[in-house]
Amino acid sequence: MHKLSFIDRFHHWRRKMRWNKQYKKGKWSYLNDERESSRYHKIVDYIKTYATTNPSILDLGAGEAVLNQRLNKNEYKTFFNVDFSSASIDIAKTKKLENSVNLVADIHTYTPDETFDVIVFNEAFYYVHNDLKQDVLDRFIGKLNSEGILIVSIYKEGTDCWELIDASSKIQQLNFEKVATDRESTYWKVGVYKKV
Q1: pLDDT over 90, % of the chain
Q2: Which 3 state secondary structure label does DSSP give 71?
Q3: 65 — alpha (psi -120 to 50), left (phi > 0) or beta?
Q4: Which of 32, 96, 98, 106 could form a disulfide with 73 if both were Cys (CB 3.0 to 4.6 A apart)?
Q5: Is 174 exposed, middle or buried (0-12, 13-18, 19+ CB in 10 A)?
């Protein structure tokens, strides 16, 4: 993360420490709740509708591997759960999900060796520092297979995210939906894009 200022690196480190503490205390376990299921259902629907059969999947911001759990082991070839919180990945590992890899990595600097049929920015893209958003987006688009799809889930509006994604000449939107819940103030926007 050499492109970030010292202050930004410090705040990034503090966020990581805070998330590790929160995962250890169970603060993020609500991601398994019914209210979150509509968002995960939409992501799974996009995978089943637009991805190749038996895809390789990279979930960026995987947390405790909740999305991985929502797919049957026969519905994917490999599933990479990636999060920069080591505590969340420790929880993911306890689930012993088949054909799955659990990695602690920072989205700002992580460059996988593999390419994927599906890459999901799972409530993660709006956490990318503004100065690095374009670089991160382009890097992961470059890790899509030729028929690969990118799925982006963002809580509420995701300031400065959708404009950047929609402006990319490297992907084309296939579908985009607002996923509402029983709380008017709780919603997500979820888009799926193909590599061009």
Answers
A1: 62
A2: coil
A3: left
A4: 98
A5: middle
pTM: 0.85
Q: Helices in 142-179 by DSSP H: which ranges?
A: 162-167
| Helices 6-25/86-94 angle, 10° precision | 30
pLDDT in tens, 102-130: 999 999 999 999 999 999 998 899 888 88
Residue 159: which region, alpha, beta or left (left: phi > 0; alpha: psi -120 to 50)? beta
What domains lie within the chain, and their CATH numbers?
6-195 (3.40.50.150)
pLDDT recorded at residue 112? 96
| Rounded mean pLDDT, 59-65 | 94
In this structure, the dihedral spanned by the alpha carbons of residues 89, 132, 129 and 6, taken in order and rounded to 10 degrees, is 100
Between CA 72 and CA 143 the distance in angstroms is 24
**pLDDT category of residue 1 using cuts at 50, 70 and 90:** very low
> Residue 132, exposed/middle/buried by CB under 10 A (0-12, 13-18, 19+)?
middle
Token pair recorded at residue 141: 């688009």
